[in-house]
Amino acid sequence: MPAQMKRPAAAAAKSGGKAARKEPVNPTTQKCNAIVQIIESAKNYPDEVKNMLAGCVKRCLEVPKEDRHQVQNEVIKMIGELLASVEASHTEELAALEAKVAAADTEKESRSAAAAAASAAALEKAEAVQAAKEALLTAKADRATALTEVATSVQAQKAGDEEQEAAGEKKAMAESTVSGALAALKSGSTENAAKSVLEVMEVGRKLGLDAQLLASATVALGKGPDARSEFDGVVVAQVDGGFSAAIARLTDMITNGEASKAERVAKVDACKAKLEAAEKHVESCQQQREAAQVALKEAKDADSEAKKAVKSFGPEMDVAGKAAAAAKGPLASCKEVIVGFNYLVEGPPAEPEVVAVEGDAAAEPAAAGEAETATAA
Predict the structure, then answer these.
(1) Alpha helix locations (H) across the chain?
(2) What's the rounded Cα separation, in Å, for the pair 135 and 285?
(3) Residue 262 has what pLDDT?
(4) Do 290 and 336 reside in the same domain of the chain?
(5) 208 and 162 in one domain?
(6) Per residue in 196-212, pLDDT tens?
(7) Distance between CA atoms of residues 215 and 200, nearest Å
(8) Does some domain include residue 113?
(9) Is the pLDDT of residue 122 over 80?
(10) In angstroms, rounded to a whole number, what is the distance separating the alpha carbons of residues 182 and 189?
């Protein structure tokens, strides 16, 4: 034997006598392995179910159809349902991605319109916030005015009440002076004319009598009734009239004072009610401003998200297009596996029968002869 023919034998000897060749893959085993991979990739089935079905693939499908037990047929049915579910899932995923790509123009217009609407809404909410701030400033100004009005009305009430009280005191003092010191001076029965004159003069000044009249009355009243001249009599009469007029004026003031007092009380109450309403309005405006600010923040967030959606549209469509292209592969593989599954379930298709017809009998010997000729050649 030539030397070159010994090398493979020597190599085979070195490798333990095993020839380095690839064993052919059994087509049935290959189909079963592909089915197992699909089962293990199913997403909507529990692991224990997938493990059970995957372990039963070969034990069921490698058995000829006519030799299978009913239990094996039931398991095969479940395997078929799982494969159909995976195919449907791939089909739905691909359809969704292709629909997304197909609706790109519509989606782009929709996002652009949403972004424009969001921007308009944010602008509107910003204007609402500004209006709420202005309304709050106005409400606070109204409250400040109401506070001033309350203070003014309370001060006026206090002054009016004090004036009415002073009028009562002045009236009592005037009446006491008229019935006391002035009467004693007029009649000349005073025990201390100088003191009585001073009292009349002081009370007269408090009552607002004419200063010239009081100056003249100081002299006239200081004289006794018999020593007074006609002019002195006129002066004394005018002083007496002045006191009477002052007492009448004070009486009217006191009489009308009750009505004025009620008016002042009503005025104070009205101002306080106005202040209370103003304070409630301020509180309401503050709440409206806060609500407007919250709405503005939400509108700004929505505007930002809408703008992001517009900006991300292009990249999203690129990803969707690539995903749609990539999704075709798993679906095609799944369909191919299902074809293999159906082949294993039903077995190879039956050979078509050759039906003999009249006239073919003469052809058979000729065909046989041709075959012999070909064999001999």
Answers:
(1) 6-14, 27-41, 47-61, 70-102, 104-177, 183-187, 193-207, 211-222, 230-311, 313-346, 363-376
(2) 7
(3) 86
(4) no
(5) yes
(6) 999 999 999 998 999 99
(7) 11
(8) no
(9) yes
(10) 10
| Calpha distance 147→329 (Å, rounded) | 80
Assess if residue 225 is contained within a domain: yes
Mean pLDDT, rounded, for 140-169 = 90
pLDDT above 70 (res 348): no
The span from the CA of 37 to the CA of 242, in Å, is 127
| Residue-level pLDDT at 55 | 93
Tokens read off for 179: 């019935």
Same domain for 140 and 211? yes
Domain that holds residue 76: 25-102+326-346
CB atoms within 10 A of CB 321: 15
pLDDT band at 100 (very low <50, low <70, confident <90, very high): confident
Q: Answer yes or no: do 142 and 81 share one domain.
A: no
First to last CA, the chain: 34
Structure tokens at 106: 């519509």
Q: Return the closest-CA partner of residue 204 out of 238, 251, 253, 255.
A: 238
Q: Is the pLDDT reported for residue 176 higher than 70?
A: yes
Rounded to whole angstroms, how far apart are CA atoms 209 and 239? 8
In a domain, 256, yes or no: yes
Question: Is the per-residue pLDDT at 353 higher than 50?
Answer: yes
Q: Are 33 and 170 members of one domain? A: no
61 close to 80: Cβ distance less than 8 angstroms: no
The Cα–Cα gap between 119 and 126 comes to 11
CB 54 within 8 A of CB 32: no
Q: According to the model, what pLDDT value does residue 328 have?
A: 87
Answer yes or no: do 38 and 67 share one domain: yes
Structure tokens at 276: 């209370």
Structural domain contains residue 3: no
